[in-house]
């Protein structure tokens, strides 16, 4: 029996004539970032946004509290969060991790961070150096400790210390507002040389705009080494399977304290985070090489060349 190969040839010819498929489905083009309103997360999200745009994606950002961010990742209404601080946010994220409702990427995107209570160095010079010293300065502090936005784990830890009378803090009041609100009060206290206790962290421009002393003795509450922390990226639990190219970029993103401090500084002066990030990348394009290793544009072309071209515009 003679095999008629004409139909096979025609079928193959038709397949070869099709246009190249995009690297990912259209649903992956919009990368939905979460941001809890901290300047360091604004900086890293800004950096990622610039790179994704250069690759032909259309990233968006939602600002929300920690619980809403984790719930949004669980429900797949959000895709990426670059700001899981370990250990401070670990109690909040653990139930989601245990139920496999989201995925924490295994390699930290930032190491060497810290997150605990701090005071102006002039207050430390007067003896306010440890958690145990706070109660001794109750009158000068007006019985207040300044936190950040409601729902943050840092605030929850301060409230727990007050409720349990740890370090003799019973009767103190936690002032919750936002990162910006806390910094306004800190700046005012610095200008008047008044003592103040704030929830502080690094990376952040506050560390070179104000001379701070981080309090010792809070290892149980915030972790050793002055709340020594690592920051991890978190994605919806199937994001890397649905959007492997975008997921690869998120996995590649690694930052440094110096990088974040320099991107955050103009943001603190009301420069748009995306613009601040773009300006930093224009001055430091070498960061792109590792980030874009194995990453293409949305339509499958070389990623590094595309992002460099976009930054040159």
TrEMBL record:
<dbReference type="GO" id="GO:0015871">
    <property type="term" value="P:choline transport"/>
</dbReference>
<dbReference type="InterPro" id="IPR007210">
    <property type="entry name" value="ABC_Gly_betaine_transp_sub-bd"/>
</dbReference>
<feature type="domain" description="ABC-type glycine betaine transport system substrate-binding">
    <location>
        <begin position="30"/>
        <end position="282"/>
    </location>
</feature>
<protein>
    <submittedName>
        <fullName>Glycine betaine/proline transport system substrate-binding protein</fullName>
    </submittedName>
</protein>
<dbReference type="GO" id="GO:0042597">
    <property type="term" value="C:periplasmic space"/>
</dbReference>
<dbReference type="GO" id="GO:0033265">
    <property type="term" value="F:choline binding"/>
</dbReference>
<dbReference type="GO" id="GO:0043190">
    <property type="term" value="C:ATP-binding cassette (ABC) transporter complex"/>
</dbReference>
<keyword id="KW-0732">Signal</keyword>
<dbReference type="Pfam" id="PF04069">
    <property type="entry name" value="OpuAC"/>
</dbReference>
<dbReference type="InterPro" id="IPR017783">
    <property type="entry name" value="ABC_choline_sub-bd"/>
</dbReference>
<dbReference type="GO" id="GO:0022857">
    <property type="term" value="F:transmembrane transporter activity"/>
</dbReference>
<feature type="signal peptide">
    <location>
        <begin position="1"/>
        <end position="22"/>
    </location>
</feature>
């Amino acid at each position: 029996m003679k095999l008629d190969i004409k139909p096979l040839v025609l079928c193959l010819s038709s397949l070869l004539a099709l246009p190249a498929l995009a690297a990912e489905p259209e649903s992956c083009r919009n990368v939905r970032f979460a941001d809890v309103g901290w300047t360091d997360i604004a900086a890293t999200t800004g950096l990622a946004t610039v790179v994704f745009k250069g690759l032909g994606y259309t990233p968006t950002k939602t600002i929300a509290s920690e619980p809403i961010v984790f719930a949004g990742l669980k429900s797949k209404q959000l895709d990426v969060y670059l700001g899981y601080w370990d250990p401070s946010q670990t109690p909040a994220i653990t139930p989601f991790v245990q139920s496999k409702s989201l995925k924490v990427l295994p390699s930290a995107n930032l190491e060497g961070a810290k997150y605990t209570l701090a005071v102006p160095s002039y207050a430390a010079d007067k003896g306010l150096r440890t958690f145990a010293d706070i109660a001794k300065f109750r009158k000068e502090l007006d019985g207040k400790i300044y936190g950040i936005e409601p729902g943050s784990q840092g605030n929850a830890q301060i409230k727990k210390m007050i409720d349990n009378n740890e370090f003799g803090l019973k009767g103190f009041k936690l002032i919750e507002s936002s990162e910006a609100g806390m910094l306004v009060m800190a700046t005012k206290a610095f200008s008047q040389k008044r003592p103040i206790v704030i929830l502080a962290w690094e990376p952040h421009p506050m560390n070179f705009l104000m001379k701070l002393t981080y309090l010792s003795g809070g290892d149980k509450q915030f972790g050793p080494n002055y709340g020594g922390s690592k920051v991890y990226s978190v994605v919806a639990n199937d994001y890397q399977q649905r959007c492997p190219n975008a997921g690869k970029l998120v996995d590649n993103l690694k930052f440094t304290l110096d990088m974040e401090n320099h991107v955050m500084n103009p943001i603190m002066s009301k420069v748009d985070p995306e613009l601040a990030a773009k300006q930093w990348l224009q001055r430091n394009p070498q960061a792109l090489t590792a980030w874009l290793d194995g990453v293409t544009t949305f339509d499958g072309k070389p990623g590094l060349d595309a992002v460099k071209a976009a930054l040159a515009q």
